[in-house]
Design goal:
Layout: H1 7-11, H2 16-24, H3 30-41, H4 47-52, E1 63-64, H5 67-70, E2 77-78, E3 83-86, E4 89-92, E5 101-106, E6 109-114, E7 117-124, E8 146-149, E9 152-156, H6 187-190, H7 200-213, E10 219-223, H8 230-245, E11 253-256, H9 263-271, E12 276-278, H10 286-292, H11 294-299, H12 302-316, E13 321-327, H13 339-355, E14 358-364, H14 371-375, H15 377-397, H16 417-423
Parallel strand pairs: 9-10, 10-11, 11-12, 12-13, 13-14
Antiparallel strand pairs: 1-2, 3-4, 3-7, 5-6, 6-7, 8-9
């Protein structure tokens, strides 16, 4: 995006809503404050979103019209954009009928308004060229597990998580409690599951798709499903990594988003051309980890997970090993941590990992059922902002920034870490 830094616009912003936020949090960059405000407040549905939805990268779920809106239309729902750029900020589009924000078209531009005040030009991420392309056998590329967030290509070679398939007597299965993403689905047999290794013909199809799509991105995040046997999972990731690295040029940086693998597997990934790994702990608190991530607890174990992270630093180098955390879930029911409790736990974990050369990535918790989240929205807003700010201070203390080769502002749509590194 070739827009100027937006601070000049925000310095002269006439929005009462935004200026109140700026005044109460004047120690934090206004760009960061605008992003978190939009993450929580969302934007109202306007015809402009329906218009842009025809050509923009579509949101995971369409917008469903309410009863009054449906009277004027022949359809129940429409696609809306998934991601929007405001200068250097990338933000996921969330619809909220009570939001002070809306997007209005003026001539050839889309403008973000806060109530009646124009704030900034908006650009929605377009569907990439590969999105409507097929590989030689006629398979559409999106059907092979590829998606794109900003300048990052997500290669989901094997989407099913085996934690869904193992039954836990107390709660049904071993999936992470915030996650529905890896539930078994019709893609699994197509992409080689439930076998450990993906069939060679499927790998060749995947590599062909990645070769085409990689021309429009700067880095790849590789995921290939969680498995109950960590050694089998390692074998699969190494297999997929080999196919992917041979399909792209040296310009494209690859990060592996597996479970915490043994050191010999990390060494093999590095040998195959992977430059970084992201072994996601999801939650630092030991007691909550067992409750929120029962599969990771049972099939890998917390000590092994942390050992995998620290071993990976020996392989990939300080700062090139990451672990994502779901921020805000610990405040929700049934966990019910207070903000000070959640902050202390998360920052203690972040500092422990920084001392080992591991970067934490704090991602905003976004539940399917938004009712309780809305009730605690102000609390989680303040928690997420303070957590991101204090973690930025820790990164400066340990002389570590988020590795832009693998995670950057142009792909971080639910995090503030890269924005803090840029603007603070």
């Amino acid at each position: 995006m070739n827009q100027n830094n937006i601070s000049e616009d925000l310095d002269n912003c006439k929005s009462e809503h935004l200026n109140k936020l700026f005044d109460t949090q004047n120690h934090i960059s206004r760009e960061v404050l605008l992003k978190i405000s939009l993450l929580f407040s969302g934007i109202r549905f306007t015809p402009e979103l329906e218009e842009a939805g025809k050509w923009a990268l579509p949101n995971y779920l369409p917008y469903r019209f309410n009863k009054e809106e449906r009277l004027e239309r022949d359809v129940d729902s429409v696609d809306i954009p998934y991601l929007m750029f405001l200068g250097k900020l990338l933000i996921r589009v969330k619809i909220n009928s009570n939001s002070p924000y809306s997007v209005i078209r003026e001539n050839d531009d889309y403008i973000l308004y806060c109530n009646d005040t124009p704030v900034r030009k908006v650009e929605f991420q377009k569907k990439p060229d590969w999105y409507t392309t097929k590989i030689q056998d006629g398979t559409p590329i999106p059907g092979l597990g590829l998606s794109q967030h900003g300048d990052m290509l997500i290669v989901n070679a094997s989407p099913g998580c085996e934690y869904f398939l193992h039954q836990d007597e107390s709660s049904g299965n071993y999936r992470c409690r915030f996650c529905f993403y890896g539930a078994p689905n019709p893609k699994m047999p197509t992409l080689g599951q439930p076998e450990t290794l993906i069939k060679q013909e499927d790998l060749l199809r995947l590599a062909e798709a990645v070769s085409i799509a990689s021309k429009e991105i700067n880095h790849i995040y590789l995921v290939a499903g969680s498995m109950a046997d960590i050694n089998q999972e390692a074998e699969r990731y190494i297999q997929v990594a080999s196919a992917i690295t041979n399909a792209v040029d040296d310009r494209v940086n690859i990060c592996c988003g597996s479970s915490a693998l043994p050191k010999d597997a990390s060494l093999e990934l590095k040998k195959q051309g992977v430059g970084a790994v992201c072994f996601n702990l999801e939650i630092w608190d030991e007691e909550l980890w067992d409750k929120i991530c029962p599969g990771k607890s049972k099939f890998v174990g917390r000590e092994n997970w942390i050992q995998g992270l620290t071993d990976a630093v020996d392989v990939f180098g300080r700062g090139n090993v990451m672990s994502a955390f779901v921020s805000g879930i610990e405040i929700m029911q049934p966990y019910g941590y207070t903000t000070p409790e959640a902050l202390k736990s998360s920052l203690d974990g972040a500092e422990f990992l920084l001392q080992k050369g591991v970067m934490s990535l704090f991602t905003l918790y976004w539940p399917r059922d938004a009712s309780e989240f809305e009730e605690k929205s102000d609390i989680i807003h303040d928690y997420f902002l303070e957590l991101s700010n204090e973690y930025h201070k820790l990164r400066k203390q340990y002389d570590l920034n988020i590795p832009n080769k693998f995670v950057c502002q142009d792909c971080s749509y639910m995090q503030l870490d890269c924005d803090f590194d840029c603007f603070m």
